[in-house]
Amino acid sequence: MHRPSRSRLATATALLAAVAVTVSAGAGATDTAHQARNAVQGGKARNVILLIGDGMGDSEITLARDYTVGAGGRLNMDRFPLTGAYTTYAVHADGTPDYVTDSAAGGTGWATGVKTVNGRISKTPGTDKAVPTVLELAQKNGYATGSVTTAELTDATPAVLASHATDRSCQGPADMAKCPADTIAAGGPGSIAEQSVSHKVDVLFGGGRQRFEQKVTDGRYKGLTVTDQARRLGYQVVTDDASMKAAKPGRPVLGLFAGGNVPVEWTGRAAAVGGTDPQRCVTSNPGRPSGTPSLADSATKAIQLLEAKQKHARNGFFLQIEGASIDKQDHSADPCGQIGETAAFDRAVKVARDYAAKHPDTLVVTTADHGHTSQIVPLEATPPGLSSTLVTDEGRRLKVNYSTNTPGRSQEHTGTEVRIAAQGPLAYRVLGVTDQTDLFTTLREALRLR
User: Fold this and answer.
1) Alpha helices of 141-292 — where are they, by DSSP H?
2) Which of 10, 52, 151, 229 has the most neighbouring CB atoms within 10 Å?
3) Is 103 among the catalytic positions?
4) Domains of the chain
């Protein structure tokens, strides 16, 4: 078993002493000395729940905190007993650093332990060879597996777990232009959608129905849609909150809750050149169908299904949960959409922590794949990009600025390190400054994957 370094263990022990004096009530929602002690001592995890806030850097977390619970408040993701930071850079084909990663290369880093070029899905940077993922290793070692997202299920973050593609754009059978060697006709594994269901991941919840409605062009399932392929492989296919909650354990479940990305929860005016009038966010989106499950509800159902499958098994489950549109709304300079998606992700964090409170052999990790654009600036500032003034739940004004690209173009990721926090077995490994690839090792060692 991996042993903590003296410095990391000393840091964790000191933190444990501090945590011990801040104990308060509420299962799964507070930092207890017991949780911190388990995290320091390490040990094997029966389950791992990994939560990825896409594009959720410290600025995005702070913006959501300030708006929803106040500057002095704390989100669920703030309540983990152990917190560190990790670096997120990608690489070029020759292995030299590419300082700003996209979600494909970033996800490949934590999913495989190997850095790759931007746009690539769980393949090497130079030779374009598939690299085993933590989900694949978990399956081989007898764990149930799941992936939940608010993006299309074929988007970069869920894709890195259950597929290997030269380019992230190769999402469905009709989208293979940039991946000629990956096509089934060329002897490859097919599109990301085809690979995801072929892997027989136990739970797949998200958007992207349009990808799964494309027809397979070659091989055993030629002429069928990918959804038909999933049914042939034994999947229950669900499309809304009611059918998701009615799904029974025993067979894998494919949840397709939107044609594209799952619609966001909040709306408001996007940032603009010269700023906006002070606004309150609208916490209901008329463009979001009423039967769309929340990320927290999807996470809850996924845990129930995975736990039921493994009830009498020696090993438990691996589950990834992504709040994808924090990133997408940051790209659009839409602060209300972004805050609402961060708040929705934070409720999923609570679901995971509540489960871990009752199952302390569960490692829960929350982090991001890369940083993003939004910055809280003084009210009197006149930034050159896009900005918006919000009226927070505290009744105070807050200005947020987006200036990583020319107004009118998509805002860009940043190369900053991002937060990583954890509780449970081997959680001490997140302390200090680590690299994105170190998370793969933490997950693999916590589950003792061979």
Assistant:
1) 156-162, 192-198, 209-212, 226-232, 241-246
2) 52
3) yes
4) 6-18+32-269+283-370+410-447 (3.40.720.10)
